[in-house]
Model the fold of this input.
Amino acid sequence: MAYSNKVLDHYNNPRNVGSFDRDDPVVGTGVVGAPECGDVMKLQIKVNKATGLIEEARFKTFGCGSAIASSSLATVWLKGKSLDQALEIKNTSIVEELALPPVKVHCSVLAEDAIKAAVRDYQQKQGSCEAETTAVAVTA
Amino acid sequence: MALSLPVYMDNNSTTPCDPRVVEAMLPYFTEKFGNAASRNHAFGWQAEEAVENAREQVAELIGASPKEIIFTSGATESNNLAIKGVASMYRKKGNHIITCVTEHKAVIDPCKRLERDGWNVTWLPVDSEGRVDPQEVRDAITDQTILVSIMVANNEVGTIQPIAEIGAICKEKGFLFHTDAVQAAGKIPLDVQKMGIDLLSLSGHKMYGPKGVGALYVRRKDPRVRLDAIQDGGGHERGMRSGTLAVPLIVGLGAAAEIARKEMPEENARLTRLRERLRQGIMGQLDHVEVNGHSTERLPGNMNLSFGFVEGEGLMMGIKDIAVSSGSACTSASLEPSYVLKALGADDERAHSSIRFGIGRFNTDEEIDFVIRDVVRAVNHLREMSPLYEMHRAGIDLKTVQWVGH
Done:
């Protein structure tokens, strides 16, 4: 199976490889997939609390070239988006952009799942922080 | 000599034709084009002579007599003919077949078809290095057993089975022994007498001959093996395989067999040396690399390695100047990781991370060194990108992680 030029480009020059501190309150982390399935994606977003926009995104992926390209592309697309806009990224757009063949569609699904998981993680962190603040406020 | 890219190191999949083989074949496409079955003119005699010469060459490779060689279209046909042909012919004697889980699909699927049609098949397991225990063959025998089919060497992990021991059991118990010798023929010494083999399949294109031709050895005495033909017609090949003989291809198979036989001792030593150079070169520079298959009982040119924390197809993409294979699901149509590696007890992750290097006649030391460098570079690159490697370095046991599968 031949890869599209865009998949090759992201594979050879992956954008935003790396990790943020997952305990940082402004970082949301999504880890999806499983080693026995042959792909694991870790996708992280760093959110500017003032603007509510994703300032930076990072990924690390264990998987085939299409999985690596899908997550690399996701980090590019996430940068500068609000959380709501991030949740609107659909796997079909990734499939289209990277010209993924049907057998590789699951890689794009995984990337969409990773985005959702990262946003959820960030929101939960914020939620729990707020809850904490509220709790403190009540006891005070 | 300058390195020419890409490097072909997938010789368990197929091999290029040796130029000497092509040279032997060429006249049989044009001036010597006769039908080997034409008994009444020089064109036919010429073709028949060439076929009989090839029959001798193939027979000599495996210690058989030329009359015991049936030419086919390849090893898939040979395996089908052997298994289904025996099953049908000996149906009254019994309906039980013994084979093993790491066989090639060309053995597994005919056996599965027979299972659907009412035969009983015992699927023997293998140990962690891919070997069948001959004692398990013995234990699986019933009074209905008519055939054992165990390959000589595995196509993925290169493990060589204890064929002579299994053959001896079959002789002792009086039923037939078929072996798929596709990977082994022309690579390691085979002797149908010493190994107690009654039927043996081999293929041209795995031993530097042409694609589209193979052979089935069918023993003629002690015992005389009979087969129900699958393909009926002109009664060629002792009635076991009708169809006009593919003279140029058969000539090529014969030439390939002769070259392989004559060069085997030297070539085996060279391939074993290259294989170990590759293994040591890679494992000396990378940690978390595991050998799949047997450490010593394996084909000289086969090395199958799993690279921890790296997915096989992703790795193949990173070494795009090297043609290899992977047991990763992503490279298979079924999206299932290699059933062979799973049968060895490897977990799915290890199967996903496996690469098969098939070193062959035309590979050089320079190529091995290039492959070592390129694989080490790509694995390091991918590990930097791997969340699993990151977790491993952080001291997290990946086996304890609750993964969210999809």
Remarks:
- Chain A has five helices and three strands.
- Residues 131-140 of chain A have pLDDT under 50 and may be disordered.
- The helical segments of chain A are 5-12, 65-78, 83-87, 91-98, 105-139.
